[in-house]
Design a protein that fits this description.
Elements (H helix, E strand, L loop, with lengths): L2 H19 L11 E3 L6 E3 L3 E2 L10 H16 L4 E3 L7 H11 L7 E6 L4 H14 L5 E6 L5 H14 L2 E7 L6 H10 L4 E5 L11 H8 L2 E5 L6 H5 L17 H10 L6 E2 L6 H9 L8 H11 L1
Parallel strand pairs: 3-4, 4-5, 5-6, 6-7, 7-8, 8-9, 9-10
Antiparallel strand pairs: 1-2
Helix pairs in contact: 2-10, 3-4, 6-7
């Protein structure tokens, strides 16, 4: 072999070796994160909703699966756990289990105020924090904008006093979009929580662009549209090209579609099953769909 051949071969081997050392997106050690615009704090992009799934009793048979779900979330690098007084016993279950598992330093706790009146709101929020065993609540949200004019004053005061770290508002359907826009334009909120998925994309028209313009973080609820997205693809194979953005299941595809929008900080699918949690957290790793792939996904469920 000539000197030039050896040099070329060595370069080729070095290049190949270097490419092997580059981490594949699907082999990341921890979940992708995005910055909360108002502070720059980094938040993992897949979290956990607790509506229905965490409204259980105190028996071991009911709580054991939820311990596993929480541990899977944190082990994958996720942190946001979202609850509400509306969700029955969910706040208490979250508080009990995250304390038992020693997860408090690793999680980002969010709940809501869901009542009318100043004093009632204060009482409810204090109870929620006690149930979740949170000395400081990371995110307190006004659930479905209920009596928001009253609660926003309390939340501003609580944030200034250090009782809560961030202020948010939530809704789950288009009927609340107009009022949400008005609040986003007039109040110093840190987060909104809204519905957005492959079947229901109305939030992308005005709400999500406004969040970007105003520097407001976005949490997405109802990512599977009550399971209707899975029904729409029943019997269909996951397309091969989904591998180009590291998706291996329909659930991951649906979550990555949401996360492909640059306004979105975190998506919060709810589950009480470990196998679903394992699948959900994988959407937080690797690449996201390109604009062209988004068009292809829209055709699948149309």
């Amino acid at each position: 072999m000539s000197k030039m051949d050896r040099r070329a071969a060595s370069k080729l081997i070095a290049t190949a070796t270097a490419s092997l050392l580059l981490p594949h997106p699907s082999m990341q050690k921890t979940m992708n994160k995005r910055a909360i615009p108002s502070t720059g704090e980094m938040l993992p992009i897949v979290g956990l909703g607790t509506w229905q799934s965490f409204d259980v009793g105190s028996s071991e048979s009911e709580r054991a699966p939820l311990r596993e779900v929480l541990q899977i979330l944190v082990d994958a690098g996720g942190s946001l756990i979202d609850s509400s007084p509306m969700y029955g016993r969910s706040e208490a279950v979250v508080g009990d289990l995250t304390t038992e598992l020693g997860l408090k330093p690793k999680i980002y706790e969010a709940t809501k105020v869901w009542t009318s009146g100043r004093d009632a709101g204060i009482s409810q929020m204090e109870k929620s924090m006690a149930l979740m065993k949170a000395s400081t609540m990371d995110l307190m949200q006004i659930h479905n904008l209920l009596d928001w004019q009253t609660h926003i004053k309390t939340l501003k005061n609580w944030k200034a006093e250090g009782k809560i770290r961030y202020i948010g508002i939530t809704h789950y359907h288009s009927g609340g979009y107009a009022e949400m826009e008005r609040i986003m334009k007039s109040e110093p909120i840190d987060f909104i929580q809204i519905n957005y998925n492959l079947n229901v994309q109305g939030a992308a028209d005005r709400i999500l662009p406004l969040a970007q313009d105003r520097g407001i973080a976005v949490i997405i609820n109802r990512p599977y549209e009550g399971g209707s997205l899975f029904r729409a693809v029943k019997g269909k194979s996951v397309p091969d090209w989904a591998g180009e953005f590291n998706a291996t299941s329909w659930g991951q595809i649906f979550l990555k579609f949401i996360l492909a929008h640059p306004a979105v900080n975190c998506v919060i699918p709810g589950t009480s099953k470990a196998k679903h949690m394992k699948d959900n957290v994988q959407a937080g790793f690797g690449r996201l769909p390109s604009p062209e792939q988004i068009k292809m996904l829209n055709k699948i469920v149309s």
